């Protein structure tokens, strides 16, 4: 299984997962033409797209993908919020098969209608990816994780000290996005004995420290590759 970030920020999110035969697109939060360009113009080879919630930096190209024949999966609440009646509905905790991938949605906490994350299993190799984009926190303990792609949005000390963000927005961020210390605490609860790579997603442009976080995560999780996904 491979995981590739095309875009990872509040400007847009999109990620490709492949087993060499089947390609999945996770999120489509860029205009279609830009998404096609970043994917190397391979979108029509995508077996399916999975969207976590309705915010445009995660769902921008959903309608265009559907019009071009790519099945786009999302929760029922997300489909209603986007008024995408042709979207494919995926129910949390009810896995579906796409090629050799088994994909299961799970609920997350975010300021959206019906947000979810995705657990993706390669049924041939046993590899497992947990994908959680925008979320305030996670409580799931998941066995046999090979890859973890998780939002790591902001650092509380930087957010609190920011002079450009109003308090109302600071509080929204605190109640809807994953703070770095909370991410670390959650990861430390997992059995990472099978983990190969942790991908950190959706870093805030002004309230994160990519280089320092890279060093910190390498120290906290020895033996696991740490990749920070850039915008």
Report on this structure.
The protein is an alpha/beta fold and 231 residues long. The chain has a single domain, classed as Ribonuclease Z/Hydroxyacylglutathione hydrolase-like (Metallo-beta-lactamase, Chain A, 4-Layer Sandwich), CATH 3.60.15.10. Helices cover 26% and strands 27% of the residues. The strands form 2 sheets. The protein has a 7-stranded mixed beta sheet with strand order 7-8-9-10-11-12-13, with helices on one face. It has a 6-stranded mixed beta sheet with strand order 1-2-3-4-5-6. It is globular. The two termini are 22 Å apart. It holds the Pfam family Lactamase_B_2. InterPro entries: Metallo-B-lactamas, RibonucZ/Hydroxyglut_hydro, WalJ/YycJ-like. This is Metallo-beta-lactamase domain-containing protein. It comes from Butyricicoccus pullicaecorum.
The low-pLDDT segments are none
Number of strands: 13
CATH topology: Metallo-beta-lactamase, Chain A
Distinct helical segment count: 8
Let me know the largest β-sheet.
7 strands, mixed
Strand order of the largest sheet: 7-8-9-10-11-12-13
> Cα-atom Rg, whole angstroms?
17 Å
Q: Which percent band covers the strand fraction?
A: 25-35%
Give helix and strand order, one letter per element, not per position: EEEHEHHEHEEEEEEHHHEHE
SSE-based structural type: alpha/beta
Q: Terminal Cα separation, in Å?
A: 22 Å
Overall mean pLDDT stands at: 97
- Count of all domains: 1
Protein name: Metallo-beta-lactamase domain-containing protein
InterPro entries: Metallo-B-lactamas (IPR001279), RibonucZ/Hydroxyglut_hydro (IPR036866), WalJ/YycJ-like (IPR052533)
Domain Metallo-beta-lactamase: 11-177
């Amino acid at each position: 299984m491979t995981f590739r970030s095309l875009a990872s920020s509040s400007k847009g999110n999109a990620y490709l997962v492949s087993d060499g035969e089947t390609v999945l697109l996770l999120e489509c939060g860029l205009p279609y033409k830009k998404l096609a360009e970043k994917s190397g113009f391979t979108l029509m080879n995508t077996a399916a797209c999975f969207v976590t919630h309705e915010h445009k930096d995660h769902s921008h190209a959903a309608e265009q993908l559907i019009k071009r024949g790519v099945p786009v999966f999302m929760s029922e609440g997300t489909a209603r919020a986007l008024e995408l009646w042709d979207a494919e509905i995926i129910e949390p905790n009810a896995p579906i098969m796409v090629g050799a991938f088994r994909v299961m949605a799970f609920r997350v906490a975010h300021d959206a209608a019906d947000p979810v994350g995705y657990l993706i299993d390669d049924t041939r190799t046993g590899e497992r990816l947990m994908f959680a984009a925008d979320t305030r926190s996670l409580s799931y303990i998941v066995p046999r994780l090979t890859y973890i792609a998780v939002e790591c949005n902001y650092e509380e000390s930087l957010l609190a000290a920011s002079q450009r963000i109003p308090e109302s927005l600071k509080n929204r961020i605190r109640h809807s996005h994953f703070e770095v210390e909370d991410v670390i605490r959650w990861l430390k609860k997992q059995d990472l004995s099978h983990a190969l790579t942790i991908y950190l997603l959706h870093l805030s442009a002004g309230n994160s420290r990519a280089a320092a976080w890279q060093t910190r995560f390498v120290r906290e999780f020895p033996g696991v590759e740490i990749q920070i996904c850039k915008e």
